[in-house]
Every structure is written in C-alpha cells, then in structure tokens.
Design brief:
Radius of gyration: 19 Å
Helix content: 25-40%
Shape: globular
Largest sheet: 9 strands, mixed
CATH architecture: Alpha-Beta Barrel
Number of strands: 13
CATH superfamily: Glycoside hydrolase/deacetylase
Structural class: alpha/beta
Order of helices and strands: EHHEEHEHHEHEHEEEEEHEHEHH
Distance between the termini: 36 Å
Number of helices: 11
Length: 356
Amino acid sequence: MVKVYLTIDTEYEFGFTAKHGHASRAANFDRSIRGRTPDGDAGIFHQMDVMDAHGLKGVFFVDPLPGLYWGKRAVADVTEPILKRGHGVQLHLHTEWLALLGNRNPLGKRTGTHMKDFTREEQRTLIETGIDLLMQAGAPRPVAFRAGNYAANDDTLHALADAGVTYDSSHAPALVGSGDCEIGLGSEHRRPLERHGVIEVPAGCIGDAFGGLRHAQITALSYREIVAALRHARGNAIADFTLVSHSFELLCRKRERINRIVQERFARVCEAIAAMEGVETATYVSHPPQVARRQVDAPVLPGAVLLNGERMIEQVVGNLLYGRESVPHAEQDEKNPSSGATAARYWEIANQARVR
C-alpha cells in the first residue's frame, strides 16, 4: 500500500502585508488562505471540499508566525477549520515575518529570509515559538516540519530534534542544486531516512525526458504524470509518495482569478487517488512515514517524451491564460517551458515519437 502525503503549505503572503500594513489581515486571508475570487473560492476550503468528497486526508503545513503580528486568532482561523474536517496540521515557517515583529520578535533584532540564515539555537527558538503558536490556536503538538521555500540546512534538523519534532519534509530531490535547501542530501535520497535525530521525508519527484528530475508539485506536474508516478511507486513497492501544493496554488499568479487548469488537475488527482487500488492518503499521525531499508536510489518514474511534453504544452497554455502559473519552486529548473519555443520543441519530438 502506497501512502500518499498530500501536503498543502498554508501561509499568509508576507509581501502583501509588508506593503499594505497591519490592517491587511482580512484581505491577506482572502487571497492567500481562502483563495477568494469573483468566481468562487479556490483556497484551503475548496481544497478540503475536494479531498472530503473523495474521502482523502491532507497534511496542512501551517505557518503560525503571523500570529506574533496579528495575534493567535490569525492562526486559529486557519487551523480550526482544518482540524474540524479531520485533516492534519503540521509546522511551516517563513522567517521573513520576523522583519515586521519589532519587539515581538523572539530573536530580538535578528531577522532573515530563510531558516538556514539562523544558528542552530536560533532555529530551535523559532521552531519552539511556532509549536507554541500552533498549540495556542488549538492544534495538537506538531510532529513534522517543512521550512518555507524548503530553505533548511542540517542545523535545522538538529534544532528540530532538540525541540522534539520527529519528521522534516524540507528536502526536495528534484530541486537539489537549484533551490534554497542546504540539507546535505542529494537527488539520490528519495526515501525517508534518519538524519541528525529526525526522519527526513523527501518530496516526491519523477524523471524528466531531457534529464534530471521533476518536482512533485501540483503546478509542476500534469495529472497524467502524477498518476503515472503513483502507479510506478505502487509497482516498485515504494511505501510513500509526497505531493506538494499551497493554499493559493489553484489561483493565477496575481491571486485574482482561479487557474482552471490547475484547479481541474487537483480535482482529477484527488479522484484518481481515491479510485486507485493500493494507494491511499495518510497523515503524519494516522500513518507516520517509516525509514526505508534501502536509503538511496529509489526507482523513479523514467522520463517520457510524450508524458512530459503534454505537461509542457499544458503549462504554456496556462501561462497564456493566467500568467505564469508557478508558485515557489514549481518552475525552478532550466528545462521548464519559460518560452513557447521550448514547448514547441517538446511538441515536435512528441509528434515524431507518435509517427514512429
């Protein structure tokens, strides 16, 4: 049985509040958490509606640091509906919020964009502060963590162990060398493993037809690629697969409209998981990830021109309709279709493959 960790990084938008000030909380909630648009909501409430309709459970990595800026109600408004519906709440931290906190900053005058910008002891303070904020908002003590932008390092893992957090999910094999994570693991580390006193649970990935790996994020893979990856995991006795999304991921880049392509993709993925024999969603509490006996070289879905090329075309169409559809790390590697020419090349190769 493959356990799918359907993870949603759930966060207020720091830049929006840095620009609009303290009074922006309601508007920030609507655009970043609720995903409100003239055509309906597409944030966590919609995502839970879809998951609930198919009997799935999600893991919401919630950033509680805005609670130091606005008060614990800002966090409780996020955690309470998630917990009420039976989904998991775990810890997520975007440290840029420290710049707005003044004398409420738990590190005094220290600020930084990423977790990795801080010492081990400072990171432990931030983690413990986040734990307290989540629990004050009614959440159970978190057992898992993901750094904002995946920007953790090995000191983060030490700090998590010091704070009594069991799991980390900041390592993304497909982003090694191109992302912000500085945990000393490589792209070959694709299964849960013990490191510095915690269990590291890597984000999922697939092979790319032009070489390298592709990150398993809702905006980074097509529906067909995700389904193929899950079938591949099942066929190769891979016990878990982590999918990544965000609370605002079903919106266009400006968060003013629903991105119908990504919204439909999310719905179809949930439907497919529910219907797929031998695959089910899990949380870090209901079915905790287990350290794999074999630590490296977990088989990954091989790249396929037709499969990958279809996604490229879909993304170009999405970019034309909605602007660049990416959210953090969905479009990091150079092989992604930043231009119509790249997609056209995929389409040309795909057509040649069909002729053969």
